[in-house]
Amino acid sequence: MVVKVMPTIENINIRHIMQKAVAENAIIIDVRSAEEFRRGHIPMAMHMSLSDIQQGRFKLPRGRTLILYCDSGANSLKAARILAGYGYKTMNAVGGIQQYDKELTVGRQ
Tell me, what's the pLDDT at 2? Predict the structure, then answer.
């Protein structure tokens, strides 16, 4: 019998995302839609939609921690689990951008 073990995903509070990214030399990934990303995202974040991740359309450096966020934290958890399944170290930002209380970057893709 083969037992598949789900990788552990560390959850962090979205309000600490910048400090955690600096401390871990992590890549911040916004998994919302491209339009939502353009309207406002966390500074230093790159965009990669959940659907791209689900379809395996991503190329990310190995050996770097990935911190994922979305609107509320649910879709970023899905994305974190998928990427962890590919062997990436991932963290999920709980609360999503709805709970982020600092200035957002607007317009950059």
Answer: 67
Range of the domain at 15: 10-99
What angle is formed at CA 26 by the lines to CA 24 and CA 27, rounded to 5 degrees?
A: 170
Asked if residue 5 is part of any domain, the answer here is: no
Residue 52 lies in a domain: yes
pLDDT tens digits along 2-61: 666 667 899 999 999 999 999 999 999 999 999 999 999 999 999 999 999 999 999 999
Q: Find the CATH number of the domain harbouring 95.
A: 3.40.250.10
Catalytic position from the list 26, 70, 80, 97: 70
Residue 105 resides in a domain = no
The reported pTM is 0.91
31-64 in b/e form (b: 16+ CB < 10 A) is bbeeebbeeebbeebebbbbeebeeeebeeeeee
Average pLDDT for residues 84-89, to the nearest whole number? Answer: 95
Can 86 be counted among the known catalytic residues? no
